[in-house]
Design a protein that fits this description.
By secondary structure, the protein is mostly helical. The protein is built from 10 helices and no strands. The radius of gyration is 18 Å and the shape is elongated.
Length: about 200
């Protein structure tokens, strides 16, 4: 398995987008027509170029999960397929009843049978990294708790932290003022994620 950027480029070409610009234009056109599922947004050719040039996964792992889901959608991959082929977990991707075709086909998303699944936002990889690395220290152990992971993920950010260090800084700042309760649907989440 090639993985990372090589897998993205191969898939892009496989589904009919000869260039990164073709794919970026296609997602922008769907967005302008209102045919992207709720929550998905267009991405730029430059961003896609950085991802396709990624050989060790660092760029992909630091990318926002939402943008990667946008890309998976356009490439016709489910979250599981994306993770298997590219090597980076995504969370949930709107699933089509029929696979996405090439750049020439841009019918209404509803006509294509796309459904947006109501799911919680996935915990960003850099936040999970912060929980694993910094949560191992006794004084920051709360960072590993599901209630904090969910609170930090669901919180609206002016600028979403991109690195484990930025997540730690945010956690330390918010911990002074907040003590998020465990939510009923999150019971057991602490046990569900272990590094």
């Amino acid at each position: 398995m090639a993985g990372y950027g090589t897998a993205l480029q191969a898939r892009r070409e496989q589904v009919g987008y000869r260039s990164q610009s073709d794919l970026a234009r296609a997602v922008r056109a769907l967005h302008e027509e209102g045919d992207l599922p709720a929550g998905l947004r267009p991405f730029s050719q430059q961003w896609l170029s950085r991802l396709e040039e990624d050989t060790d996964g660092q760029v992909l792992l630091s990318a926002r999960a939402q943008q990667l889901r946008d890309l998976a959608y356009m490439l016709g991959w489910t979250a599981a397929e994306f993770e298997t082929e590219v090597g980076v977990p995504l969370g949930s991707v709107p699933l089509p009843s029929t696979r996405a075709a090439g750049p020439d086909q841009a019918p209404d998303a509803q006509q294509q049978g796309w459904e947006v699944q109501p799911v919680q936002r996935p915990i960003p990889g850099s936040l999970r990294e912060a929980a694993e690395v910094f949560g191992a220290r006794a004084e920051w152990a709360e960072l590993r708790e599901g209630r904090w992971l969910r609170f930090l993920t669901d919180l609206h950010h002016r600028r979403t932290p991109q690195t484990a260090g930025e997540w730690l800084d945010l956690f330390l700042d918010l911990r002074k003022r907040f003590d998020p309760p465990a939510l009923p649907d999150q019971r057991g989440e602490e046990d569900a994620w272990t590094p």
